[in-house]
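Dear all,

This email documents one entry for the complex benchmark we are building for the journal club exercise. For each entry we list the sequence lines for every component of the assembly. Then comes the predicted three-dimensional structure of the complex as a token string, followed by one or two observations. Please use this as the template for your own entries, and keep the labels exactly as they appear.
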Amino acid sequence: MTGRPRRDPRAERARCLVPGGARPRLARAGRDGMAIAPDAGPREPVMIRVETPVFWVAAVVEAPNGRLDRWARQTLGAARVLAGADGGVVALLAGRDAGEAVGEAGADRVVWLDTAIGPDAMPGVMLAALAPFAPRHVVLAETPAGGDWARRLAARSGWPIQTGIEMLSARQAIRPVGAVRRERAAVPARVLTLPIDRVAPYGGTRREGRPCPPPDVPAMAARMQVGPVMAAQAAGIPLAEAPFVMAAGQGVVDFESFHTLSRLMGATEGASRVVCDAGLMPRAAQVGASGTVLDARCYLAFGIAGAPQHLQGLGKVEHVVAVNTDLHAAIVARAGLSIIADAQAVMPALIALLRGEG
Amino acid sequence: MRSVVLLSGGIDPVSGRSAPPRGEIAAIGLALSAGGAVGGLHVGLPAAALGQAAGHGLGQIACLRGVGDPVAILAAHLSAAPPDLVLAGSRACGGEDSGMLPYLLAERLGWPLLAGVMAIGAGADGWLPVTIGLPLGARQDARIRLPCILCAHDAAPAPPFVFDRARRVAMHTVAVADAETIAPLEGTERPYRARPRLIGSAAPAGGGRVLDNPDPAEAARVLLDHLRALGMLGA
């Protein structure tokens, strides 16, 4: 016998148990045996407000549909990395108003830019919008439009630029040079462009995202006229590039409804291996390990169980929606919305609903 | 119409052997489709990649021999005898690869610039219609005032390679006045290290909503509402 008192694990566990919540939650960290205050219920939403930061960092964010995509959030995340604790982030929002999402993504101020002015006037408008903030850095996404604006801005202002940053911290930016065989590490330049999936989006407390007045458009000679964007027909987009893919599996027999629905929804058609083997869809439509790996935003699967080889083809798809008769199919575990029903019943109902809406 | 294609002596990113970048071959195709005289222009000594680029349809290439900022050398040469059209690739391959040269040149010459050009139409009244290629197969029509600089889209149609043309190309060196020196690059250069991309940013939404055996009309309504919330349907 030692003099040490015996432990009572059951009593310790009961003391650590946080009351409330559907699942038991234990708070052990250094508080064994101490009484824990009960949860005070849902907390007030917290927001960080910055009035006069030490310096500003700007991020140019594209939101053509009023939505911030992953790349846009990462651009704001990169601006937050450069701003650190002392700096503020101003977002130049090119496109439609994205509402509170810009503040959630890390912006303290938002200035709206009209993209209809065309690329030639863009650097002048950007410089006018940036002038009140005198930003230490301007971060842009290396998209076709963002990369173009960044180079126009750097050429007009004479600010040094670093393109295609693959690693970013407040003190160092690393970018590939020499045909991606060499890399150059340097202090971050005034203008930076960011490829996708290199810097994490901002994950901290929500920022204010206060709207600021848009800049005046400086008058300039009309040297070019840019027309509206003509979207490609969904059927004509290569499967690997398509943003919205609708796929048929073994559970689909009514292909007439499937083709009608894909036309109504403006989705590109895909298929599982079984369907392509049976000759019901062209081989080019096959999704999966031996077919095409998608880069879509949304994948709508009709009658697909989700074999591992098929799920490999969903690599980077953000949103999966499944219509399947089997509740225990693998695709149901991957899907954000699963409808356990026969595809032959759901497809005509969808067609009727879409046609009814005009 | 007289066109000039800007050529860089690039290397192939995989093999490391000298090869013209994809965008510059596309630029040669655009220049040929515009019609008229087409010439190549390079700052520096004749490089092996220039002959290969010429095989795609260039009869002659001028190599400007001068010391200093290539943008200043090009601007001085082009403003002495301005062509109607200057074409370039999206970016070089083997140097700094920033894609800044056409933009700096356009700013210095005061010419308009459009990037991502897929096709060129027939010019009239000093304006040139062009088609710009955007992601997901989208297209945009534009008109630009001549003279101008166009950067070709990497996916613009490339003219075929003819070995005989590459062999016969007339490459002449032009001695030009030295330009201002460029500031040395900041930072340190070292062999490339592949860094992993972020994963989990497109995290599988796993364990989402499940509707078990709903009425088809109800299922259709929920599905459309979900797709609308994701912004995948127009309305």
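Observations: Chain A is about 25% helix and 25% strand. Residues 70-83 of chain A form the longest helix (14 residues).
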